[in-house]
Amino acid sequence: MVQPTDPGPLAAHGATPAELRDRIEAERGGAPFLVFRDGAGAQRLFVLEAQRTRVSLGRSPGNDIALVWDTEVSRLHVELERLGDEWTLSDDGLSRNGSFVNGQRIGGRTRLRDGDIVRVGKTSLAFRVPESPDSRPTRAAGAGTAPSDLTAAQRRVLVALCRPYGAGEWATPATNQQIADELFLSVDAVKAQLRALFQRFALDHLPQNQKRSVLAMRSMEAGIVTARDLEAG
Question: What's the predicted TM-score (pTM) here?
Fold first, then answer.
């Protein structure tokens, strides 16, 4: 199974708390859905409802998913089709620039699995299946369960880590120095707390440059850090 190297529109550093809440709400709905960003950078969710069997995607406004801002997308680029309980992506020569799943160009029909990143033109779309057995750590929505028995010090570090997300879109987690300044700790103390949190959230397997973003994502999704916490700083 090919693992995506880039979480694309699911990346935690590109999501606001409101956008994370929208994703969580979509997951609670239980139906598969797509996450992508429009030409203005706003998050869009497209739910693949039970009554749908086929979804067209392309630059033409007449498509079910119209990527009108992306000039590298063909007027009719690809189609998604439900086969039984599975969704597939089909590019039978419809597009000029091709379609990619997890970085690999596809031809014909490809089954989509939870966490797959579809790229058409310059646009990436993440395919999500709530509670899918195929779920992988690459879905930034956070596979796994967040620990519920964190210490008060660990929770304070988490809130400080997530603080920038309260400032608006395209935020990134706070740096060690920013956390240290907010909590009147040494940078070494912050690093020690973060190492413990990475272990508690089972993130040790992730690349170092992804751990902080995924930790922030899971903390907010689990309700350990709330929008009220971020506004109270």
Answer: 0.59
